[in-house]
Design goal:
Blueprint lengths: L18 H6 L5 H4 L4 H14 L8 E8 L2 E9 L4 H11 L4 E5 L2 E7 L5 E6 L26 E14 L3 H38 L11 H16 E14 L2 E6 L5 E2 L12 E3 L1 H8 L14 E5 L9 E4 L4 E8 L9
Parallel strand pairs: 11-13
Antiparallel strand pairs: 1-2, 2-6, 3-6, 4-5, 4-6, 7-8, 7-9, 7-13, 8-10, 11-12
Helix pairs in contact: 4-5, 5-6
Amino acid sequence: MSSGSSVEDRSKPAVVREGFFGDYYEHLAEEDARGYAAEQLTSRAAAHREAGQSRKPGTANVRIANEGDRSILYIVTDDMPFLVDSVNAELVRQNCAIRLVMHPLFVVSRDHLTGDLSDIARVPSNIGISSGDTAAMPNIAHLIAQGDNVSHMESWIAVEVDRVADDFQKELVDGIHRVLNDVRAAVEDWPKMRTKALELASSLDKVAHPEDIAELRQAQDLLRWLDNGNFTFLGYREYDLITENGEDVLELREASGLGLLRAGTTRTKSSTSPMPDAGRRARSVPWSSPKPTRGPPFTALRTWTTSVSKASMLPVTSTVSAASSASSQRARTPVP
């Protein structure tokens, strides 16, 4: 990615390609490197290392530093899918002009109590590492099982943007933390959400006389298709269909959320939502087992562009399950 910096002398040496600095800038193009003084790049790498000097698993270090008419955002966190695209999307949302993105991957050894960094090794991103292909992994034996140290794969992301005013830096850092927490929640709960999708598909077999409901088998096929690598599940939450003031509403089932909709995330909102049309459809479904006392069961499946209140409602189990998902192409950016 072009830096946008003016180039005064293309004959000057590029960034140092040795040791930590060489690993850090392994994939920085020479054309981009020559847009900066070598001392400037060295200083940035050192600042990033300082930002990652102490970190515990499951947390993210986020710092911002001003440099002339630019600001540099430094991030150190556990390696996860969708990080760079999610960070970039948040920066764009906050009207930051992105000029350069660095994303080296490291295997980092840290003290298991303090999180202090003790050693660091590059992960060559030009090597395709398939699951279980240990021969393609870098040699990290010197980082593993040394006293009180533990090793983790970490993403170190540095983004150069136009200078961020001091008054807005906290808002920017808070937004990045929120996005990183969302990514972590979705990644950690992704296997559970896939399991839920398959459970919901199987539960449709409990409906009596399924031939009378045209959408039933389509719903099963859709859920299984989603699980077959076609969608990335971002959030899941269960509701009960109840009657409130004469209207059918969805009542949030406590502790049922996963991913972006898990308890304590910034996405958790109101506990009830009106669902009049869907409620009438659900109450007319013939079930082969007794209906639950709190109302008939169905599921609300929500895709990237569809709100829960407008989702297509389909009969399913004894709860209403709101599954938030996005296609694998779209899921690189976080849900707005």
